[in-house]
Amino acid sequence: MTIQDTLTDQEQLAGLSHEQLEKLVGLVDYDASADNFPIVGWDALVWVVGNATATAQLMQVVYGMELVAYAGPETGERSKTSFVLRSGAARFVIEGSVRPGGPLVDHHAKHGDGISDIALQVTDVDRCIEHARKVGATILEEPHDLTDEHGTVRMASIAAYGDTRHTLVDRSAYKGVYLPGYVERTTQVVHPKGSPKRLFQAVDHVVGNVELGAMDEWVDYYNRVMGFTNMAEFIGEDIATDYSALMSKVVASGNHRVKFPLNEPAPGKRKSQIDEFLEFYDGAGAQHIALATNDILQTVDVLSARGVQFLATPDTYYEDAELRERIGQVRVPIEELQKRGILVDRDEDGYLLQIFTRPLGDRPTVFFELIERHGSLGFGKGNFKALFEAIEREQELRGNA
Ligand SMILES: [Fe+2]
Q1: Where would I find the VOC domain in this sequence (predicted)?
Q2: Quick one: 352 and 260 in the same domain?
């Protein structure tokens, strides 16, 4: 039996249909009745940064996100500023400390700008926590209610890789803009006439980098705790270049809304890009966030004009006969992709277009991917080698031999 699941509040707000989500992020139907840990979808990606005011502004001015809510000293929140931003169904919460010392300062001192919480919407927080506890997950916050005049949100948190956590949120009885304690805010940024309404529509996947030998443990964790299934895309030595290598496995929630590729370093002649992440992030953490767009060319053009730097793709990528053959027919001439450095990958279900930004902060850690899916449910396995070589050229510039 398959069940068409419900849309998240963010998806409804963004006017996205089930059919559009199938195309955008590869949503599938599944039977949730046997699921011990039924996940509706993403709730929010919570970032801890050194300057939330500036990062929130950047995400609006450059990435076209919309400010929807805020908490900070002016609203009675004494320790931090917290900006809630939205683009389509994607919600980011950007947090920074307003005081010297405290957990956000510690998080930032250790990791630099990064993602502290991959929050997920669930239908029954207590049932999820009960199951998670039974199978040995670490409960960081027990189920509790937050209430204001807009209703009640029930939430709890469990530990994931490194200092990352998953907060589980049931907001079905809440009508407010984000959470109790937040006030509504609207964006003050005015984009020039003709600018696209939004540059991305949803979060497609979040990649976690974990320590050597830990990947299978985390695959097992997501299987055991969240009932995630392993997706076909398993990568071993076949993507190793001469200089660095990684191992990667992908787990996904029943409806495939939430997809977590997990990487661990593999030995190469030089330091792997995953090792570099682990060193600069000081442990395991979220490496990249893939943002689904239905027009990657336009998004890349707008972001480039606003100063976003993407990883360069060598011309040989587009000129190589074998690769061209594999790419086949895509919706635009290959030259249009080459101009922008957009990568193509193809499998039996279709193809995808993707591109990666340079790291967002001062450390060579977290970055964005843009992804436009055309049937393919993959993650660009065929592009790993091309991507690797591009990342290695950058690594070399940082003296990371
Ligand atoms: Fe990715």
Answers
A1: 41-171, 202-358
A2: yes
